[in-house]
Amino acid sequence: MFDISTLTFFEKGTVLRHIEQSNLSISEEFGLKYFEGEEAEQIRMTFESFGTNRWPVMFEEPEGVTTVDGTQWNLSVYANGKLIHEHSGSNAYPAQWRQLTQLFGIS
What we know:
The chain contains 2 helices and 6 strands. The protein is of the alpha+beta class. The strands form 2 sheets. A 3-stranded antiparallel β-sheet has the order 1-2-3. A 3-stranded mixed β-sheet has the order 4-6-5, with no helix packed on it.
């Protein structure tokens, strides 16, 4: 099972959040929501406050820790259709993980 959540920041300030959920081989729309005005600006400011441009490319479990059936994640940041930076992890997360997943609507 996996969730894919996308935040799209438009030039005029609107933010679109699209969530797709897949359970095994069945994929379905889970949510599509537009944010405007003050709410959209708050989402933009919150995302920028995470400083994802300063994150390491890969988050890894501490040495000596092995998780057999864990969670993998990926965050790709695009601007004007171009990949700016990308981050991933396997059972290891940035300090703001809970806030990030809440922002993306998949907490």
